[in-house]
Amino acid sequence: MSGLPCPLRLATRPVAPPLRPVLRLPEKSGPFGSFDTFGWTWGPELSIDENLLRLALVVRFNCLRVANYTSGRCSAIMARPPRQVNETHIDIEVVGFGINAPPRFSPRRGLQDTKVPGVRHWHQGMANNEIHSEMQIIGRCAREGIPVRGAWFYIALAPCWDCCKALVAAGAARVLFKGRGRRAPKKTKANPREQLFAEANGMAWVHADFCPDREDYVDAAWEAYKKELGLDRAAVKAQASAGGLWDKIKLPVYAGLWYFFNVQYNIENKKLLNVFHANWAVSWVQLAAGIPIALFMWSTGLVKAPKMTGSDYAKLAPVGAAFAAGQVATVASLGAVAVSFTHVVKALEPAVNAIASALVLGQVFHPMVYASLLPVFAGVALASSKELSFTMFGFLTAMASNFFFVTRNVLATKFGDVGDMGEDKTQRKTNQLAVLTFVATMVLLPVCLFLPGGLLSIPSAWNAGPSENEASE
């Protein structure tokens, strides 16, 4: 070990010159195949432990690449103990990788800042909701039937108490980890309680010596990866200056198109409801129109289709019912009063959302947030008093749509996501809306079949429409 630039305390002896490593990494088609090693290669001048610890440290960059998560502070790898296969070669098998990240298989994996009801000053954000890297490896090995007993773990930080117990329970034989920070650690034991527990149960607890060369290697790998992504400041500026016109204007263009089509929807909806008195039917058809659009995206591969079970759809039934009720109330209000007045009342939806979040989710905002809503209440009251087309029915249905849509949002947050909606954020949000549209359409169907103004009223409303239109002309 004296000739090595980075000796490790209690590390295995370096590979003798005649022995050459036969390195085996997880297969790309296997359960750990999505992880990248970011240019890591075996250093023949380094010990087995030093090589594998450096691999564990660069695996951390997968927090950004795989989970789109920038707060991950730790990573780990699991390897089999080195085994000499003949006089010239030694077998080194890396079985799995792990990163600190929110659980990928949890229905609440996408939470950012949802406050836990009844718990003060504690948020269920991604950092607080993450699972540690060694636990990720153990969990995935359990799902895939990969044995952990006798394995060695190389970890970027000392395992916490819970992870230490899990490693012992899983049968890990050895844990090697790096100390915190870029300076040499003090001459004290790292996590003494965990070390005593591990050694008492036959698991070796190895704290790697500080090594400046190792820190420089990881920093260089990170800078190279940031440059590849365009995250370094110089590259970002160069890319911004070299970007085309479309890259600069696409956001306002998309926002403008969204407003344009929203306005057109409201105007055409009002024209339709003036001559076609079938509010329930119009509401259902507008919801159902989203289904062929979703099917087209899924069938053409524009968006990966979600994976749902019957129980998943059942859990979404209350959310779909609130979605459908909000749609019906909005259409009813548009038919009763002026479009502008409906949307003046619907401006109260953020206020209703803030109140409902506090009552149901326990998510309380700063008092200034609630104070900022007072002018909105005053504006709606003033507009209602001056509105010539004001009717109590139009006002109440507009307010009902606020409550129903807020209920949809709160229930969706409370119950969390269900099924596999995809890993990409845009894909996940698109699939969530598509699935909710499908559920809302199915929930509303039996209701609007037989009610007046429902689907069975379409022929009579269609026949009555032209005469009313001609009379208005």
TrEMBL record:
UniProt protein name: Phosphoenolpyruvate/phosphate translocator 2, chloroplastic
UniProt-annotated location(s): Membrane
Matching SUPFAM superfamilies: Cytidine deaminase-like, Multidrug resistance efflux transporter EmrE
UniProt keyword Cell division, yes or no: no
Keyword Membrane: yes
InterPro entries registered for this protein in UniProt: CMP_dCMP_dom, Cytidine_deaminase-like, EmrE-like, Sugar_P_trans_dom, TPT_transporter
Keywords: Membrane, Pyruvate, Transmembrane, Transmembrane helix
Gene: PPT2
Topology in the lipid bilayer: Multi-pass membrane protein
Domain CMP/dCMP-type deaminase: residue ranges: 124-177
GO molecular function term, any single one: catalytic activity
Sugar phosphate transporter domain sequence ranges: 250-465
Top-level division of the source organism's lineage: Eukaryota
Transmembrane segments: 151-177, 280-299, 319-339, 351-370, 390-412, 433-458
Any one cellular-component term (Gene Ontology): membrane
